[in-house]
Amino acid sequence: xxxxxxxxxxxxxxxxxxxxxxxxxxxxxxxxxxxxxxxxxxxxxxxxxxxxxxxxxxxxxxxxxxxxxxxxxxxxxxxxxxxxxxxxxxxxxxxxxxxxxxxxxxxxxxxxxxxxxxxxxxxxxxxxxxxxxxxxxxxxxxxxxxxxxxxxxxxxxxxxxxxxxxxxxxxxxxxxxxxxxxxxxxxxxxxxxxxxxxxxxxxxxxxxxxxxxxxxxxxxxxxxxxxxxxxxxxxxxxxxxxxxxxxxxxxxxxxxxxxxxxxxxxxxxxxxxxxxxxxxxxxxxxxxxxxxxxxxxxxxxxxxxxxxxxxxxxxxxxxxxxxxxxxxxxxxxxxxxxxxxxxxxxxxxxxxxxxxxxxxxxxxxxxxxxxxxxxxxxxx
Length: 380
Description:
alpha+beta, four-stranded mixed sheet, four-stranded antiparallel sheet, 16% strand, globular
């Protein structure tokens, strides 16, 4: 079997590398020194460059002005974005567009996707429920009312919702079915309250009080929310991988230059062993990420497997949530006091890693979910 990336996927990485090459991780105030958000908006100039390089339309079909690539290509670009702590909602935007493209109606797709590909329209998604620990679709109710739907409930930690044009909100109908509503940010009954992430980015707690949604703006196929949820989880694993690779590279450079007793500390056995352990973590994060992304694409093409795709995503989340934490902790340890210096970017990566870990959730929860899937789908 050939596990190399396609020419198109490799070209996406090269394009992303060129766009992100000029991005500085310390381009905004330090989250350690800023009591609120480090900025009111995401990096609009970078967003424009991504659009100009056709990276926002990467996963859209040609009919919507895109390149027709897949979740693997998106994860490759996300990995490059995380290496420089790119402050753009690339994951939420592209994942929502992919869910609309796969399961939305023609009218909804025509209204959202061309603008999303050009970057003139920004999509985000509410995926964390009431607390960040409960299923997001259970935090909002949806009931039909003639040709419209009425939504009530709350969602927390919605990324950059204050800047979004449209927000994807999962909800339940009371009959066990999950629906996905697309709401303009300015909608009667929809209110946003500021929240702030560990990394210093602006989030929103949104409240829906009798929000009315046209039937054409609601996707009643449960597969739409399932796909969006899995894409967001897999993309977060890609961000964790890219961040971890950047941090390990920083650690390698620092320990190669820092000397004690006349020798670089990188030559000390204890330092080398810790760095090697973190390298193994990153390789495990990488292989489980590509397995999950590949399963997403093969499932979309109708291919099955011994477990549902959620099983592969759970494995990727186990490694990503544990691995990114271990990588930044080891980096802080090997940098000594220098790692806490707010003039040095490592503390920023630490804050972003903690935010990604919180988004992914504890590994024990994913292990439990994987166990449930194994019990329901015996492999033998």
